[in-house]
Amino acid sequence: MTPGDELPPLTVPITRTLVIAGAIASRDYQDVHHDAEAARSKGSPDIFMNILTTNGLVGRYVTDRLGPEAVLRKVSIRLGVPSYPGDVLVLTGRILSVNERTIEISVVGTNRLGRHVTGRVVAARPCRARADG
Amino acid sequence: MPEAVPGDVHHLLKPFEGRPAAVSASAADPVNAPMIRHWCEALGDTNPAYAGDDPIAPPTMLQAWTLPGLSPARGGRAPAHDELFTLLDGAGYTAVVATDCEQEYVRPLRPGDEITFDSVIETVSPRKTTRLGAGYFITTAMRLQVAGELVGTHRFRILKYAPAQALAQAPAPAERTTGTIRPRPRPVINRDNAPFWEGVAAHKLLIQRCAACGTLRFPWLPGCGRCGSPEWGTTEASGSGTVHSYVVVHHPPFPAFDPPYAVALVELAEGVRMISSVTGVPHDRVRIGMPVELEFIRVDAEWELPVFRARADRAAGADA
Description:
heterodimer, A: alpha+beta, five-stranded antiparallel beta sheet, elongated, B: alpha+beta, six-stranded antiparallel beta sheet, 6 helices
């Protein structure tokens, strides 16, 4: 694993269930994440995914790719276009830097509207010393 | 009448910077396995570290532990946050969208951890115009502790805005009405270009002319691009020109304009070029080389601009 390496993408269908279950699991009851009528009255064509779910999916993507022994240390994300039910979010990642203890990865998530999320993740590297010793 | 953009209240918001949003607030529940499991189910996260007998909480759940959900917020919430939001709601900035989240995880959270947190309003931006509408970016910084030990930090940015509904609800041009067109953006007028706008007000299109070398220049600048002299005079354009180039704007929409429309680079008879509109023909009839003639049009209640009308004698023939 070296800087510049691309991680295999993760495709996440943005279902209405994911948007709502993600909002409720994150205890975010803002109506724009579960009530389509309320979302429309605020100028949005439909409910849209909340930032906590996006954050969780970015974290999931990195640990899915690095394996369960990798532990997230930092996740910084910026949202771009919304993700609506029916969209497909494709997360891609690139290794930015690697040292003995941590690995830094840039993550981009795109949907049909463009960039939904850009972010950086720092994870503690899986500890291989144990297996060797 | 279209809804006007609410007034700028930044001077009322700025004093909130540095004020606490939460002081020693308590999470509603201790970190617990059921909430971890619900999160993992919702997000499809099958990481075994988050399951089993000794799970850790998914680190990205950090903020979820601090949200009040549907129950009233528990003790420790400071009034500044509510005051700030009440003020913005009252001023018309009623909608909210999260834009940034930066989290650092000092140590994993495990079931039984009882989280307390402090939060401060870091910054309130000047009013920004975004695709969603005009509003203010508010950044808060939170520190989460368990038994007095720092376990994580969370910086969060939201946009609190007045929805530009005409934009957000109008993906199809057919649904748009020209009645929602807002006033044109205003130029920044300063001592380097004020005489140009005075000329426009008097229905004169003034070109700068270097007093040292005589070179004409447009747009207006403090010095001559050819010889560097800061001395200048003006000459009034005859008003004749040709379309040197153009683009047709379809997207993105912008409140003051009604796409599609043509933006032309007009070469004046004097040799300088200026960006302007072409009137008298539809956007899809503008052509390179088309002869045009200066006119002044009123673009909104208070504002006139120099634009260029396609010359009827030539334009009709060109496309017939």
